[in-house]
């Protein structure tokens, strides 16, 4: 699936950068075009793989390139005001060559949290291609303002995109891990999961053809109908004689010739499907009630088979209660791993979102109280007891 990606804000830009690096490393052919947008000049300068010509600094008249802090209302205002600058970069995207837009953003900060729904709304108004969001929820230890921002941004973002794919930092940060180290690892997890999902169907000509093809239309149909999506992933190392790289080191020559027992192949795939769906999802939820699902199995061709995929698909139908469950494989001849990726679309039983909203309501009340107390304290500080000083205006 070929995507035009727009990374909005610091987190969005870093994830976009990681996607481009992943695309180059694996030759997956996912990122057809990439644009990074930010109000902070330093964040744009820190990107390594996004071309400089595709880095857009907005809000210069308002924040002088220093960012908006955690003020996502200001982030939204600036995105609205400077949407023509963003569109200028988007105009260079060969839209006729992409299957969809993907807007990437962290939902807890200011620029991405406020600006990503604005640009998604703008894209949907102009283009006929689907517009998806990939939103990252902040960890619970990042503070009340970030939780409040995320709850408000989530509520807005999900309305403006054709589907919102969500990654919850709270489910992935390890105890005692540094913030920077944690984010680097989380970004790697994000691109691994979504890279396999969006990479399906982009097999090079002359390479191995999937037994059961997953192309961009399958992904689009699974994401159709809107709502929230989550992705599960599980992988297992196999002895591949022609292995010469990681999971998605995509080589097209010297196919895998090692024989593999059909029963073992089928059992491995069905086991991985269960682990992917019931393990750590990008957004933890109860999988029953998911409206649609898509299964992608990736790995050396000899370790993939139609029977395993079909069993995995039927199991997903039983677990989700959905009759819209698609499935297929993604041959990766040079890999030494077999992986299963499960996309669950239209999920509704998500405890984390309810918790986020409740904490945000409490945070909003506290913030209003703190602001009022701050205003009262300032008033007491500047007033003179005898009211003898005249203000300038």
From TrEMBL:
Record-linked PROSITE patterns: TUBULIN
Pfam families xrefs: CetZ_C, Tubulin
Organism listed in the record: Halocalculus aciditolerans
UniProt keyword Protein transport, yes or no: no
Name used for this protein in its record: Tubulin-like protein CetZ
Coiled-coil blocks: 353-384
Amino-acid positions noted as binding GTP in the UniProt annotation, renumbered to this chain: 10-14, 110-112, 142, 169, 187
Keyword set includes Disulfide bond: no
Cell compartment(s), UniProt: Cytoplasm
Family: Belongs to the CetZ family.
GO CC entries: cell division site; cytoplasm; microtubule
UniProt-recorded Gene Ontology molecular function terms: GTP binding; GTPase activity
Domain of life: Archaea
GO terms of biological process kind: cell division; microtubule-based process; regulation of cell shape
Function: Involved in cell shape control.
UniProt main location, coarse: cytoplasm
Location of region: Disordered: 244-264
